[in-house]
Amino acid sequence: MKALVVYHTQMGRTEGVARAIAAVLGEAGETGAIPIEQLTAADLEGLDLLVAGSPTHYQNLPKEARPRWSAIPKGALAGVWVAAFDTARQTWGPLMWMTAAHRLLPILRKRGGRRAARPETFLVDAENNLVEGETARARALARTLLERVHG
Predict the structure, then answer these.
(1) Do 145 and 30 form a contact (C-beta atoms < 8 A)?
(2) pLDDT for residue 10
(3) Residues 41-61: tens digit of each pLDDT
(4) Which of 19, 110, 122, 150 has its CA 20 to 30 A from that of 53?
(5) Residue 100 near residue 56 (C-beta atoms within 8 A)
(6) How many CB atoms lie within 10 A of CB 42?
(7) What pLDDT score does 126 carry?
């Protein structure tokens, strides 16, 4: 299996989640984790799974990251399993559905990706540190993705 975890980060929390996911995916084959700013068309060739991550800013993708995600060419992810995650502070009720991951997944699907999992949010506290247990949840997500891709 060939997998890639692509992320946008500003304070390192999203990168931490991305690397935890990539570590588990790497047990099943060739896996990398790179910032969206370094993504090239060659990185997308031959992928079985692409996991995308970003922090949530004002219930959306960060402004500076939006054009980079949208620059992935249509059809570039044809047949590739895709999943999306974000890091965000816990909010109440309906706002939990307004996160970067919920914006990312449709972008990936419009480029031909096949949904491997629902969007996932990993919580940060008031000091922007990952809440205890979130890294373990990231590893669990990776195991779920492996089951989906191989199952």
Answers:
(1) no
(2) 84
(3) 999 999 999 999 999 988 888
(4) 150
(5) yes
(6) 7
(7) 86
pLDDT of residue 64: 92
**Strand 49-55, strand 81-89: pairing:** parallel
Query: 77 burial class (0-12, 13-18, 19+ CB within 10 angstroms)?
Result: buried
Ordered structural domains, the chain, with CATH: 2-150 (3.40.50.360)
Q: Are 25 and 5 contacting, i.e. CB atoms less than 8 angstroms apart?
A: yes
Q: Give the chain's length.
A: 151
pLDDT in tens, 113-150: 999 999 999 999 988 899 999 999 999 999 999 999 98
In our burial notation (b when 16+ CB lie closer than 10 A, e otherwise), range 57-69 reads bebbbbeebbebb
d(CA 54, CA 13): 9
